[in-house]
Amino acid sequence: MPAWQVARFLCKVEKEEKVVFKSYKKEFLKINKTRMHKIIPYILAVCCLCMVASCDTVFDVHPYDVQIDGDRNLNVTNIQKIEAAVKSKDTIRFAMISDSHQWLDDLKSEVNDINRRSDSLDFVIHCGDLTDFGATREFQWTRDHLQKLKIPFVALLGNHDCLGTGNQSYQKIFGNPDFSFIAGKVKFVCLNTNAIEFDYSRPVPNFDFMEEQVKADADDFSRTIVCMHAAPYSEQFNNNVAKVFNFYTHQFPGLMCCLYGHGHHTEQNDIYGDGIIYYQVANAAKHQYYIFTITPKDYRYEIIEF
Fold first, then answer.
1. Whether the Cβ atoms of residue 180 and residue 192 lie closer than 8 Å to each other
2. Which of 109, 170, 107, 110 is nearest to 134 (CA)?
3. What is the DSSP string of 98-137?
4. Interhelix angle for 136-146 vs 166-173, to 10°?
């Protein structure tokens, strides 16, 4: 057979093979397309199961979900314990801490140090900034550490605790940001002073609450300590009403002193030059806190280093 006929024969064979191949390919794709429609739902189901297995819930990635696990409304519960325990005491002792943020190892050490002295202490006041970013989990982590204290505690609202939905998480876990309690004839008035975080949309500080507390249970206390996170003239405070705030604090019977955090170091200031000392406590990372002793006639303090 001549070479040109051989070449023509081979081209014909190649064309026939291509036709057959295209026919088989079309049928193959048709069959597999049908199969894939059946398989895809199973693939998606497996992917979803993998997602669930990798975290607590499919939507467990939102830091501000305000889905609280564990104990809630702790300030009310612990205030009942404090008031019952010190009702007949004429001398009380308490620790003051603040600004634990995410220094959880330092907070753990602080709690352990307070527990070593718990036999001589009645309660603990945390002056706020329980978190860094106001995330729900942060509040729960801090709460769980504080609950390892052997004595009851209360916690105030800090400016970092207001970020995102933090104020909602705070209210669920601890309660109202303005509250008070009476220990040994001394009323502790605990206030939200983080005005900037509320963009002046709420009364911060709440003078109506302060007026109410001057009169409430008046027969049960003769002296007062005012507690807050941010002090007057700090960048968080509504300094348009700083002088008014001072006026309201002096309406309380026997105003002894004021306690605050926020500044991350320990110092004592006569902010208004009227003899009422404002005590600022350091953050947890600086390993310092106060112990106050309230006697029938006076008070004294110690700076504890741990």
1. no
2. 170
3. ---TT-HHHHHHHHHHHHHTGGG--EEEE-S---SS--HH
4. 30
Count of other CB atoms within 10 angstroms of residue 191: 27
- Residue in 304, 283, 259 with CA at minimum distance from that of residue 142: 283
**Nearest partner of 134 among 91, 88, 172, judged by Cα:** 172
Q: Quick one: pLDDT band at residue 178, thresholds 50, 70, 90?
A: very high
What residues pair up with 124 in beta bridges, in sequence order?
95, 153
* Residues 6+ away with beta carbon under 8 Å from 4: none
Per-residue pLDDT at 29: 47
Chain segment 69-82, per-residue pLDDT in tens: 999 999 999 999 99
Tokens representing 254 are 């026997």
SS3 content of the chain, % helix, strand, coil (to 5): 45, 20, 40
pLDDT for residue 248 is more than 60: yes
- What integer pLDDT is reported at residue 17 of this predicted model? 44
Return the residue matching tokens 């007026």.
211
Question: What are the C-alpha distances in Å from 162 to residues 57, 96, 158, 262?
Answer: 25, 21, 7, 13
Tokens of 223: 């002296």
* Cα maximum dimension of the chain: 129
DSSP label at residue 149: -
Q: What is the C-alpha separation between 139 and 132, in angstroms, rounded?
A: 9
Residue 207: closest CA among 251, 256, 171, 154: 251
pTM of the predicted model as reported, rounded to 2 decimal places: 0.81
Residue pair 257/294 in contact (Cβ under 8 Å)? The answer is: no
Scan for tokens 């729960």, then name that residue: 140
Place of tokens 């009364």: 203
- Please give the single-letter amino acid code of residue 275: G
Show Cβ contacts of residue 209 under 8 Å, excluding neighbours closer than 6 positions: 178, 191
